[in-house]
Amino acid sequence: LFNGWPGYDHLGMYVLALAVVFFLALTVEWLSHCNILRPETASNRRGAAAAIGVMQTVLYAVRIGLAYLVMLAVMSFNAGVFLVAIAGHGVGFFLFGSRAFNKQNHSSGKTSDLPPMNC
Q: How far is residue 34's CA from residue 100's CA, in Å, rounded to a whole number?
């Protein structure tokens, strides 16, 4: 990726690179399962629906951009980076996507602001 990345010569930089990759993967999972936007406010005004659509598009672009950054980090072919990326996605799914901490009402059928990531 970059010369000297993820910090093979300096342990502190290597640990920092691992932490950044972990939190990037965790953020991707959070964005995949977040429910920030409130659709009931959009039903009152036509302009609000357009604004929510723009915000949803921005969230989607940020999520995909972060997912590509995690993918580029994994392509450094470093086992530690690979393991923390998997751990970040796993912990993120456990916290935000699994039923262990699920506090939302399923009566509306909406589980997230964004569509699921498909391979």
A: 15
